[in-house]
Amino acid sequence: MSAAAGTPAGSEPSATTSSLDQLTLTVDAGASPPTIALAGELDPHTAPLLEGAIDEVLGREGTDLVLDLSQLGFVDSSGLRVLISAQHRLDEQGGTLVLQSPSETVRRLLEITGLIDHITITDG
What is the pTM of this model? Predict the structure, then answer.
């Protein structure tokens, strides 16, 4: 499922919102670097939505990406896999993945898994 579903061919919106019941993504491709804001839960049902949005943004923009996690309340192993995959992809391209303002729950998971030492995290 593409984050830009429903967007007319050839147009490039600066912000697109896509959602499933458990996750809403807002893609701001016009930001520098592009930003994807997540709200809800990142699990096996919603991880493909984020993966598709990341693929679309990186296919268009290239090397840097910000994921705003301030409204993300839950992440499981499938969600972590998407984050790790994005980090590896950006590393290979010489880019940076930034996790912006992770919620307390998500930050704790990043600490427990040790990812906090391998992915750039900012608070704003």
Answer: 0.83
